[in-house]
Design goal:
The protein is an alpha/beta fold. It folds into two domains: 130 residues, Aspartate Aminotransferase, domain 1, CATH 3.90.1150.10; 214 residues, 3-Layer(aba) Sandwich (Aspartate Aminotransferase, domain 2), CATH 3.40.640. The protein has twelve helices and twelve strands. The strands form three sheets. The protein has a seven-stranded mixed beta sheet with strand order 2-8-7-6-5-3-4, sandwiched between helices. A three-stranded antiparallel beta sheet has the order 9-10-12, covered by helices on one side. Helix 4 packs across helix 8 and helix 10 packs parallel to helix 12.
Length: 360
């Protein structure tokens, strides 16, 4: 197609990976995208799917039941909610509803890649505060971040808590300062809590007090439902109303809507899975300590490990059995590799491979 027909912000500034260039083999552990592959939770979800009525596969979704269930589950009015095709759907809707070309959008880097993508699609001016390296892992200078809010008065501020890929969190006190600062600057504050309840601190309780706050959550992490592509946002009624104005014809698919509704009733199974993965995290970090591998605290369903001087050799062995993020290319994470968490029995497979290379 003649590039003249394509918007300049897309044709000249935006590149995206093509589907089909990388297909994960089923005989390897998938620990590269922070999915929840806990087989016990997957079985619960499988049972739910098998119990769905046949029309779940042939009809468009009836959203009302899920909105009511989420309202009761979260303790917020239904008109504070937007269900979407993954939490990414809420983010896109926020850009569509609030960001005009030339508006400033502030976020910290490295972070969720779609912030940059949507900034380019919608013609926003990107303002990025970079994480820096420290002895305790990536560090975000919140004083400098707040100064950017006050100086530039961005239309939108995007901040995952915990952040990925860094795994870091913003303290409750810092978050309260950010809430006040963005309210004063007239900025929409988008807090992405995709990893809740791996990290249980939340700002959901503030949606009644801050009409500029949008809280986003995913079912692709703790809930083990990445394949269903369903998430939601919570905000003041006026913000939610604006988000609904730009939503697609149907916010999500029928199967995902029905399964999430059923899994809300089985939330204890989600919490059990989170506990299993946290136990696996402890075991993996204890293994790292025994072998003097450096690591730093993370608050999602993943860990960062520095595999040391034999890292290349260990990586070659791991490539035969597991997908993971090897050597993330950012100054705050240099030397570290990221492993999503799996139940202990699966993490032990990785430990055995690493130990074999160390003993070779």
């Amino acid at each position: 197609m003649d590039r003249v027909l394509i918007r300049a912000s897309i044709s000249e500034q935006l590149t995206r990976p093509l589907w089909g260039t990388s297909v994960r083999a089923e005989d390897r552990l998938w620990l590269d995208k922070n999915e929840n592959i806990d087989s016990d939770l997957s079985q619960v979800i499988r049972d739910v799917v098998q119990g769905l009525p046949s029309y779940a596969f042939s009809t468009y979704p009836e959203m009302g039941v899920l909105y009511d269930k989420l309202s009761n589950f979260l303790g917020v009015p239904a008109n504070f909610l937007l269900v979407s095709a993954g939490s990414d759907g809420v983010i896109r809707s926020a850009f569509e509803a609030f960001v005009d070309p030339g508006d400033v959008v502030l976020y910290a880097g490295p972070t969720f890649a779609m912030y940059e993508v949507y900034c380019k699609i919608y013609g926003a001016v990107e303002l990025v505060q970079e994480y820096t390296a420290s002895q305790d892992g990536p560090l975000l200078d919140m004083g400098a971040f707040l100064s950017l809010v006050r100086t530039h008065r961005p239309k939108m501020v995007c901040l995952p808590n915990p952040n990925s890929p860094t795994g870091t969190v913003i303290s409750d006190a810092e978050m309260k300062r950010l809430l006040d600062c963005t309210r004063d600057s007239g900025s929409l504050l988008m807090i992405d809590e995709a990893y809740y309840p791996f990290y249980e601190n939340t700002v959901l309780q503030y949606v009644n007090d801050y009409d500029n706050l949008l809280v986003i959550r995913s079912t692709g992490k703790a809930w083990g439902m990445a394949g269903f592509r369903i998430g939601y946002g919570v905000a003041d009624a006026k913000v939610a109303e604006a988000l609904h104005k730009v939503r697609p014809m149907y916010e999500a698919n029928t199967v995902g809507v029905m399964v999430l509704g059923e899994m809300i009733d089985r939330y204890d199974e989600v919490l059990k899975s989170v506990d299993r993965l946290n136990q696996a995290k402890k075991a993996f970090l204890s293994f790292a300590d025994r072998h003097d591998f450096k690591w730093f605290p993370t608050y999602g369903n993943f860990v960062h490990i520095n595999l040391g001087p034999r890292g290349d050799k260990i990586d070659a062995a791991l490539q035969t059995c597991v997908y993971y993020r090897r050597a993330i290319n950012h100054p705050s994470l240099l030397g570290y590799s990221r492993f999503s968490l799996a139940p202990t029995v699966e993490m032990e497979r990785i430990m055995k491979v690493i130990e074999g290379e160390l003993n070779d």
